[in-house]
Write a structure and sequence with these properties.
Number of helices: 9
Order of helices and strands: HHHHHHHHH
Largest sheet: none
Strand content: under 5%
Radius of gyration: 22 Å
Amino acid sequence: MKLLFTVALLGLFAMSPADAQIRAKAKQRILEKQQQKQQKQDDAVERFLAMTPAERRQALAQLPAARQRQILQRLKALELLSEDERNSLRGRQQAFTTLPPVRRQAVRAELQNLRRMSREDRRRRLGSDEIKQNFSEDERQLLNDVAGQQADQE
């Protein structure tokens, strides 16, 4: 009886290949929505950069306070950059957004890991066999570019 009960429970919790596919598709949709949201935010900041101060004030007045603060912080950071630095940042953003969602997630996680490291630890990590095995050449270049920019700011 106990065995029958255990088998019945396993049957309830077993995941068929179709269930796994459905979950994978749902996860993919969530990642795509997150990417679209990030792209919209990036586009909004770019639009604000192109506006006159009066147009910015008018557009910001229509947004919730939290969103206003977020955009103003990004604008201030971007305005401090030279045109070459801005173009480089746009290129890195474009390279990142063209990655498949699963790879974007892996690159994002590694960047978060690298941000917690000292400059020397980042350098060692970026040159490690693990990074070479787990990331494509383009992904490694993106990691190096972003981590290098962070090292320059320290």
